[in-house]
Amino acid sequence: MSEHETKKLSRREVMRGSAMAAGVATIAPVGATQAAGSMADRFVQSNHVAVEINGVEHQFELESRVTLLDLLRERLQLTGTKKGCNRGECGACTVLLDGRRVNACLLLAASVNGRRVTTIEGLADGPRLHPVQRAFIEHDAFQCGFCTCGQIMSAVACIAEGHTDTNTEIREWMSGNICRCAAYPQIAAAVEAAAREKA
Amino acid sequence: MRDFSYAQAKSRADAILLSGQPNTMVIAGGTEILNWMRIGIVDPPRLVDISRITGIEGVEALPSGGVRIGALTKLNDVAQHPLVRKSYPVLSEAILKSASPQIRNLATVGGNPMQRVRCPYFRADEPTPCNKRSPGSGCAAFEGFNEKHAIFGWTKDCVAVHPADPPVALAALDAIYVTDDGQGGRRIPARSFNTLPSQDSAAHNVLRAGELIVGIEIDPAEATSAYLKVRERESYEYATVSAAVVVDLDGDVIRRVRIALGSVAMRPWRLSETERRLAGKKLRSDAIDAALDAGFADARPLSSNAYKIKLARNAAKRAIELAAGIT
Questions:
Q1: pTM (two decimals)
Q2: Which residues face B187 on adjacent strands?
Q3: Chains A, B: CB pairs < 8 Å
Q4: Which residue in chain A has the smallest CA separation from B15?
């Protein structure tokens, strides 16, 4: 029995605790919302955001600069959505917004008010994995796993869009997700298999 | 990213009023401006979000036979629209060869020409001389790393290129950016939307504060077209050079051809002299090489990018063949 297991406190749980503490400290004062009046008064620092995430309705008061990615990770502890580059270059933060794949790091949380977000945590049906998740396991479509959640979210959308006719087409339409372990052949094979299963 | 205050525009008129407020910038798709703010290129105290306004989204046929594309239409939706695929393959191809599927689901076609240069000195985390980043500070790229930089229209004050693909196709199609400023707006040709350093080395484009691109209009297509993008990897990479060609053929004789090059200048670069000389010439003839050479007469290399002259010339030649259906 390892020391980690006996202590019943994983590294992730420690990180979550400190992230929550930091989150509390950065919430803007409620009084920052100004009354509507002149055009200048329309601009606010604290934004009310109502958003459906993985089927659950959430309400937040958020600083303007909070991205959807930070909202998911820091406020909801949905850490499956990864912060890789935080510049829209790697695809590790790919989520579905109203069913379409997007980079969560390139969206202000304030802008998704009233919309519907699906993350990797929302794919499985209870204990039953999503077909794309199963295909990634069956095809060994990862090594270190850091990009995997983004790859799977992107693959779900890629299949729904119908961009899976050939291996070349899959690779082109999966090119927004970088894998530094270069598991690309296995990833493309997993997407192809999952697309066939769906068809 | 430093915090800022935020407002969501409710309508087009509302967006223009809000964006005209002091110290205010506009966010639509957000795929560029958030990164500028992270790097420190801009630090706006106020952002107005225009992404939720209605009425300037979608692709529609014009009575004239052309097409009008709403500025807020997502890149993927423009590229995959049946009208665009059928009549303007050069635009569809240019879009699908840009960025990634995820980014194309966020980025808008009207925001796309607002992209800023990818010059590493402009995007540097630490201050380096760059007239676009800090006007008057000079241009580090002129004597620095410039292998991806301009071969046309540069000055010692700025040698960067505009990196976007769709505006190259739009320039070849003589598309118009329709703007609104609350006073009627303007009609700005895509080929002259971005600013050459000889006009203003610190500027990126001619759009004014309080002025928004609301749509793009393209004339009827009576021609075939193609987009060729040359890059260091096959997908999800900026162009080293690109070529957009729109050609109207009578058999194997060129009635009219329009050629725009990408990533060779601070704006999509039309090869006007080549176009003029190619009217009435046969495909596959020596006249094509001569006309291309004439179009490159004013190309000037920097210290590390002479290869781009040959690459761009040959890309233009190949793109003419692709547009003409020669495979």
A1: 0.93
A2: B178
A3: 106
A4: A39
